[in-house]
Amino acid sequence: MLRKVTPLTAVLIAASLMLCLVFVLSSSQQISAQAAPAVPDAPGSISGIVTNELGEPLAGIEVQLFFSNPDFASPLRTLTTDSNGFYRATVLPTGAYQIRYRDLSGLYAQTFYPNALTLESAAPVAVAGNDVAGVNVVLGRAGVIEGRLSRTGNGYIGYSEVAALVQLAGQWQRAASVWIEAAGVYSLTGLQPGVYAVCAFNQYAAAGGGPSVNEASVCYDDIVSSIDNSHPVTVTQGMTTTGIDLTLGVTGDSAAIGGIVRSSAGAALPDVVVMLYRRDIIGSYSTMAMTTTSAAGEYSFRGLRRGTYTLFFRDTVGPNLAAYLGGVSDPGMATPITVDRFEQHLDVDVTLGLGGLVSGRITVLGDTPPEWAFVSLQNVNIPWSYYYSFFPTYDRSTGAYRVPGVPPGIYRVAVEARLNGMSFSGYYGHTGWVDPELITTITVTQGAHLDNINVDLGQGVFDGAISGRVLAGGTALAGARVSLYPANNTLRPIVEIAADAEGSYRFGGLTDGGYVVGFSDPMGRYATSFYSNTVAPSLATRLGISYGAQMTDVNAALQPGGVLMGRILLNNNAPANGYGVQVWYVNDSLYSPLAMMTQRSVTDAAGIYRIAGLPPGEYRVCAGPLFRGEWFTIGCYGGPPQYGDPMRASNVRVQAEATTQDVDIFLGDAFPEQAFLPVIDR
Length: 682
Known about the structure:
mainly beta; Immunoglobulin-like; 1 helix
């Protein structure tokens, strides 16, 4: 029923609606006013303008942002100013940033915000979810330093860095640098006016060098001792300073250390290796250079920068004892030598103590020298875990080894070796494992040469064996294929052999390790089996061989198997020729419900595949192209289109002495109707 509305009622209703609207709007404004905090321009940005000294905007200037972190010197972002000299780096996470401005044409000088010479001295710009605007810079005209990098003699140069350095906050920092290959002309562009040290950094330059910023190889002009002593190079705005040449390997203001190495009898020792070590700021020594004494026993290291050094000496062929300077074996106890600019310490003569010499031959099974061998001597009066090598030499062509400079004492001789990818180990006087307390020892005395300390390895290593019989239907299966797999790779057999007329087989010459044995019928009538009586290698019993164990009665009783057949199709039902087909056995294992089978097939020109010798049961079938001998699955029977995961496929039943046909798989991308339905549903 409709109710009549009088004019008075209409007026009252309209007034009520207006009051409600005013209330709602008023409430809305109050709520908005309470919920309007300042929202930052997350995640943040940095913007500014680049101009020249006349205030003109500079287009095409490279702007690079770095994290304000001395351990991360690579640019985070690189952008370029537009025609108005404007740049803006957006989507910046919260952090502090340092900025470099560089004119790639070299007309204007490089600078770091706000007007710093180096990255380390640049002021960080803080971003915390907001837009930091007005990060402006003014670029002045650049100066240039040019010169040539070369090397004395014919030594190797390789890549070298040439840098213009400034000293700020008590340390040398790179204002600009360039890398060049071998000898040649360098050019340091984009430099601000000022005074610089120009140095080259090259790890092959001198004996006492390293590539850190405070360890230049050479500085202008022929300064080796320290960057602090380099000749200053002045750069003028808009000008090129030329002739700043650098020569690697010069002696310059460097120091030298040298002397003569003698035996305890006073004879000069040739061919002694001398190693130079330099002490760092925390007192540890690091290797700097190596040389060999001449026929007169002389050695020298030149081109050294100032610092503290020590030396290590070792006789490579004779009985003389290796030692650090001062006759000690600990570098921390070695005698130090401190040198300054131009100092020549060429009287550091040493006398090496007299020890013994041990030599012999290493073989594997009495005849073959190993490809690699290492001999170490164990002092019986020191805990057995401590070994001393005394720098042995080994000749892989003959198996001869030599251990020079052995301190007097009683030793066990231990050998580690490799041959044909296998590792061998053993002791002098023993052909196999022996209790460490029963190992034969040798006694080394001063001046003694113990020869014919021969070590033969491999005895018993190849004595392991696995053997058994293969039966089928209760009788011997002559010609049965028996496959031996390593336990860690059951898809690639180590070797396959055929059983004899009695069904017997034997794998000999086995080394320590785990193995899996598989049995199959070459005719495909009987199902492939793995010891003991399992269908797939991943489910098989692992056989462990150690200390030459002989495992017999590893037998198999094969049962009749089934056959799986089908076609692999591509777009327009074209046959997939040469595609690989793999199958997985469906088992009730919670952790491994699918076991990959070793039986595989490759499709013929009609796309047909056939897999025989399958134990009765449920299977998943997948296929894909072969690539360089590897198998890839890109589709499975009854699974989603172009999805090569057998876990998503449908089961296929195989019965003994029967052929399961029409297990077809479509691998194209133009899907025909019902292409993925199991055959029974089509």
